[in-house]
Amino acid sequence: MTVYAPARNGLSFLFVPDSGLSQDAHEVHRIQAVNRDASSSLVEILKGQYIQYISSALALASQDDWDGYQALAADVSVFSYALNFINQLPINYPLPEVAIDSDGEIAFEWDYEPRRIFSIRIGRDGWLNYAGLIGHSSFHGAEFMRDSIPPEILNGIDRVANNRR
Amino acid sequence: MLPTIDANIIDHNETVSRYLLSSSDFATNKLRVKARALEPSPIDQSTSVFRVNGLTENEIWDMGTREVADPRGRRIHARADFTVSHVLNLNLSVIPSEPPERHALISGWSNEKHSRMAKAQELAAQASLKLP
């Protein structure tokens, strides 16, 4: 069961030094700054929408056997962990699809192709199980999320988003 | 009456079907199965499938409706087909589990969740999506 959240493309920004710029370069810099502010606002709006996506997903999976295959009801205690994850996701990383796993955990997926996919599951205790498949290379593990997203998770997203084997 | 098969012996070349009860278990635009649709049930740690060799397409869909969808008050949106050898290559097993007729379970999943996720991703990559 999925509440689909369209994955946004990565937004990246080019930062240039202020000193020694021509008039044209200053104009380019000004436009970049405007775009950066606009993009930041857009990302904040998109992240805000995830509260709705996650809430909807939890509501639709609120009872046992919601998937017809004995799934456990979604666990609302993972909600805050999921929101924290989205808030901690760097601005230049694509946002995932949102789903509920059959054991009630929240699933975030970056799904590009059958052999270019990265998935994490957010557990009740803050543990993140992850698995990725790029070509015939598979990688997986579990990390605990403290103040920020573990580098192994960010690396996994980056690998599938950029098709880096 | 479905063509009979050996209830105790499963051939490596047999095809098994996982009936998908949710439209989010697959991506129609990409014509492929989502990995989490193949992960085991948290109750019995196995994935329910049906052996479909020797059946026509209509018989396969009818069996899914009769044995899976109707008892649950659901409808089948699609199915994922893959061979037994795909499962065995992941160090999982396919065990006959009748009744109902032709039912089987994919078992042997790891206790580690991330390992189950990885195997389901690989299985989904090899599965073919069938739409009614």
Which residues of chain B form runs of ≥5 with pLDDT under 50? none
How are strands sequenced across the largest beta sheet of chain B? 6-7-4-1-5-8
Tally of contiguous helical segments of chain B: 3
Helix proportion of chain B: 25-40%
Given as residue ranges, the uncertain stretches of chain A (5+ residues, pLDDT < 50) are 1-21
The number of E-state strands of chain A comes to 6
The average pLDDT value of chain B, as a whole number, equals 93
- The shape of chain A is globular
Description:
Chain A is α+β, with helices and mostly antiparallel strands and 165 residues long. Chain A has one domain (3-161). Helix content of chain A is 36%, strand content 22%. In chain A, strands 1-2-3-4-5-6 form a 6-stranded antiparallel beta sheet. Chain B is of the alpha+beta class. Chain B has one domain (15-130). Chain B is globular, with a radius of gyration of 14 Å. The two termini of chain B are 21 Å apart. Chain A binds chain B through residues 1-4, 65, 67-72, 99, 101-104, 107, 109, 111, 113-115, 117, 119, 121, 129-133, 138-142, and chain B through 21-22, 24-25, 27, 30, 32, 34-36, 39, 41-44, 48, 68-69, 72, 74, 112-115, 117-118, 121-122, 124-125.
